[in-house]
Every structure is written in C-alpha cells, then in structure tokens.
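quick one before i forget lol
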Amino acid sequence: MPGLLRYVCDGDPALRTIVRVIRVTTMLLRAAAAFLGRAADWPDAVLLDGMREHYPAITLDDAVEIVEHLTPMETEAQQHEPSTVS
C-alpha cells in the first residue's frame, strides 16, 4: 500500500533506507516486463530465471506486485515540503 517503506540490507541490518511508495500494481509475472517498459531487456525466460533465484516455484502465471516508489532522496525532500492539504 502507498506510504513509507523501510528497506533493510539482509547482509548488514545497519544499512537501511526509507522510501515513499506511490503505487502498487498487481499483475501476472508475464506482464511485468512490458508494464515496466523492459520487455526487450527481460524476455520471459530471462525474467523467470531471475525471479526463480528468489522464488524457485514462481511461474509466469503467478501474480506479482509491482511496487513503485520515490528514491530515498526524493522521499527525504518530500518530508520537508510544507503540506498543501488544508
């Protein structure tokens, strides 16, 4: 869901950053590369091999969530902007 998200490095929990999630979109894995404009870089076989490094049983017909967020610097800058909501 949109809001703040903390990333913590698995190898070194002291390495952390916070980003603002702006959108989460659920779709089949087979549609993800095209949605992200990366179809030429990630044909189905390449995408599936990469995802199986982390999720061995995943298939192209499994639902995945595409999490879009600001960079840590954009998130930090936004925290200091005055609110435009009255």
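fyi The CA atoms of residues 25 and 66 lie 5 Å apart.
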